[in-house]
């Protein structure tokens, strides 16, 4: 199995390094990651400037762009043959609920699926200093399961791992995306020239603790695995709106 490993925390992130070492037991692993932190870049592409690629080793590259840039360049410029699976992470911080739409980690996995291969996005649900070894071993077991059982090329598994000693992890739950209670704020300040500038800030996210969601699972000590589909169509709304009798 040829594996492409990327992230949004950057090429030197500890979660990436530990996961690369674990996945090496399953086949060739190529690292293609941003040269710096690209958190919350979502699915953005760099279109208005050239991208620079820096080689760190035989199968290790950094790119001065977004996680999506990294996956695209890996598929269309760096790797031959193409990878069988894309793994993004391990992110230092959770990616649950609606936050998947902001996440560079999840976006990189989605780009892998758009290129026609299954993908995994993995996140450790803490911003504190952490040991990534046990989470990386779980991701390796998940990749082994995908190799044995198969996964559709248009599917993404979004994995969130609880931050606790691994002996106290309660198990694995297959979940749906939760709902975030937003408390983001816009902080206005003034620079030395008297001009206003703004920080997008806010407190740590608060989640509605509904049974069956990714947050509920992680909150209770379970690993959350959420299968994601690229089709965002609201099919029920399509049927309802057909009754609107709109005319051009």
Describe how the helices and strands are arranged.
Layout: E1 3-6, H1 14-23, E2 29-34, E3 53-57, E4 60-63, H2 67-78, E5 85-92, H3 104-114, E6 119-124, H4 133-149, E7 155-161, E8 171-174, E9 179-181, E10 184-190, E11 196-202, E12 206-208, H5 214-219, E13 222-229, H6 235-241
Parallel strand pairs: 1-2, 1-5, 2-4, 5-6, 6-7, 8-13
Antiparallel strand pairs: 3-4, 7-13, 9-12, 10-11
Subcellular location: Cytoplasm
Domain Survival protein SurE-like phosphatase/nucleotidase: 4-183
Cofactor: a divalent metal cation; Mg(2+)
Unreliable stretches (pLDDT < 50, length at least 5) are: none
Tell me the β content: 25-35%
Total DSSP E strands: 13
How far the N terminus sits from the C terminus, by CA atoms, comes to 52 Å
Categorize the overall geometry: globular
Name the assembly state: single chain
- Whole-number tally of structural domains: 1
Order of helices and strands: EHEEEHEHEHEEEEEEHEH
Under CATH, the homologous superfamily reads: Survival protein SurE-like phosphatase/nucleotidase
CATH C-level class is Alpha Beta
| Estimated helix fraction | 25-40%
Specify Rg, calculated over alpha carbons: 19 Å
The CATH topology is what? Stationary-phase Survival Protein Sure Homolog, Chain: A
Kindly name the structural category. Answer: alpha/beta
Mean pLDDT: 91
Gross CATH architecture: 3-Layer(aba) Sandwich
Largest sheet: 9 strands, mixed
Strand order of the largest sheet: 3-4-2-1-5-6-7-13-8
Total helical elements: 6
Keywords: Cytoplasm, Hydrolase, Metal-binding, Nucleotide-binding
Binding site for a divalent metal cation: 8-9, 39, 91
EC number: 3.1.3.5
Organism: Eiseniibacteriota bacterium
């Amino acid at each position: 199995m040829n594996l492409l490993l990327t992230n949004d925390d950057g090429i030197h992130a500890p979660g990436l390094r530990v996961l690369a070492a674990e996945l090496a037991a399953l086949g060739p692993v190529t690292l293609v990651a941003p040269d710096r932190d690209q958190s919350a870049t979502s699915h953005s592409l760099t279109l208005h400037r050239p991208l620079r690629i820096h080689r760190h080793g035989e199968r290790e590259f950094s790119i001065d762009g977004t996680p999506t840039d990294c996956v695209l360049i890996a598929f269309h410029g760096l790797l031959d043959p193409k990878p069988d699976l894309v793994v993004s992470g391990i992110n230092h911080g959770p990616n649950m609920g609606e936050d998947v739409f902001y996440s560079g980690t999840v976006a990189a996995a989605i780009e892998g699926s758009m290129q026609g291969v299954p993908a995994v996005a993995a996140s450790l649900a803490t911003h504190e200093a952490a040991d990534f070894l046990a989470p990386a071993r779980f991701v390796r077991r998940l990749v082994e399961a995908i190799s044995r059982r198969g996964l559709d090329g248009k599917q993404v598994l979004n994995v969130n791992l609880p931050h606790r000693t691994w002996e106290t992890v309660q198990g694995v739950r297959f979940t749906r995306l939760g709902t975030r209670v937003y408390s983001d704020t816009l902080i206005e300040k003034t620079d030395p020239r008297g001009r206003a500038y703004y920080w997008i800030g806010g407190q740590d996210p608060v989640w509605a603790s509904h049974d069956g969601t990714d947050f509920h699972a992680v909150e209770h000590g379970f690993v959350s695995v959420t299968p994601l589909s690229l089709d965002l169509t609201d099919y029920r709304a399509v049927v309802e709106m057909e009754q609107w009798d709109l005319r051009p």
